Amino acid sequence: MADQDANALIRLLLRHTDLAQDAVARMGDLSQAMVSRVLSGQRELRKRETVQRVLEGLTRGYDIPGPVMEHFPPELGLGLNDSGQQTASVLEQVTRLDLNEVPGAETQPPYSAISSAVLSWLVSHTPSGSEKLRGEEGPVAAIRAAAAAFAGLDNRFGGDHARIAATQYLSGTVVPMLRRSYPSSTGRSVFAASAEFVLSLAWMSYDAQRNGTARRYFVQALDLADHAQDRLLGASVLSAMSHQANYVGSYTEARDLARAALTGAGERATATLRAQFLMMEARAHASLRDKGACSRAMGHAEQAFSRRDPGADPAWIGYFDQAEYSDEVAHCHRDLGEARAARRSAEQSLTASSGQEYARSRVFTRLVLASAMLGQGEVEEACHLGAAMVPQVRATSSARCAGYLDAFVDSMRAYKGQPEAERFLHQTRTVKAGGSTGQ
């Protein structure tokens, strides 16, 4: 089945049937944690005996044919390109394989696969870009508006909500624009707008935990930013890649990418950008449990954030406000086991936020707050907040939200036997039995 690809079969069953993760785990004689990691692309089943056992368990009682399936070329989309025409060709291939859900796309490529692209960008001698860009109207403005619209849907409803539509827009609208010839300044505008769009799609793919595809979109966004001679946008792409690397457990890589963003931006970085890049480095140090390095990075970030001037920032960093900054600080304290500080920063983040524009981010913050409450021994209060998050997670198409909830549920199991914890764990078991956690 699926060219003997048990990983592809697991993903297809979970995405296109009503089967829940625990049901697929039982059928394949796997742990639910392993099924979750396969779905997110963090792990692959490779041992022949394991693959055979899982395939037999998942297909027992069904006559499922075994066609030879196309596989995602492991090197596709992981390097910088010589021209916009070449970038268009790469993106055309990536989007086709992405839309067809070709096996191999979800696996997160190792850092070594993209290190040459990052190094090439770091050492490139990008001009100052003092020439005024042209082409801000018409198609370029439309691409920027589309990028903002899809990013808004992502932030509010989760990455899988409109990801397919965004991928189709990239394939049908953005890629053909990249194939055309333009005067220098107009071409840079096209590349910059396209970079912003591909970056938005990369974030959506990451939130949907299609990590291999997301990494390819991130690298191609970096390539487009390089063609646009937009050093700050390229640095922001590296910062986003650091965020993803930290989430999937590649902490040293996350640290290095954050440092590359700061180094590559150099003196051009605004105070807001410096603060954001430094917080990504701090997040990586916290994951590595390096309290001293984390504190230093957070201290530098705080100094930069206190000097920020939103009027001097590119529009695409506008999301990094007080609420987002405090949320990142809360994550650092949580990962260092500093429950009181994590709670204080999470509460500051929630106080500073308003409206539904970044509803998904507030789910993350509230689950960090619930974890901090648990760390302070406030089991009943943590359960109450965690229970309130269950329907909000169900309402999103965000695999990351589901992952945050799963992590909180796992931490709550240490309190089994306490009535509040038992009620909460029963509630989440009921949700998972219905297959409605968004995973």
Protein described:
- The protein has 439 residues and is mainly α.
- It has helices spanning 6-16, 21-28, 32-40, 48-59, 84-99, 115-123, 138-157, 163-178, 184-207, 211-227, 231-247, 251-265, 271-287, 291-306, 322-335, 339-352, 359-375, 379-394, 399-412, 419-433.
- The protein is built from 20 helices and no strands.
Concise description?
This protein has 439 residues and is mainly alpha-helical.
Provide the succession of SSEs: HHHHHHHHHHHHHHHHHHHH
Helix amount, in percent?
A: 55-70%
Number of helices: 20
- Residue fraction in strands: under 5%
The best one-word shape is globular
Descriptive labels:
20 helices, 439 residues, disordered C terminus, mainly alpha
How would you summarize the topology of this molecule?
Blueprint: H1 6-16, H2 21-28, H3 32-40, H4 48-59, H5 84-99, H6 115-123, H7 138-157, H8 163-178, H9 184-207, H10 211-227, H11 231-247, H12 251-265, H13 271-287, H14 291-306, H15 322-335, H16 339-352, H17 359-375, H18 379-394, H19 399-412, H20 419-433
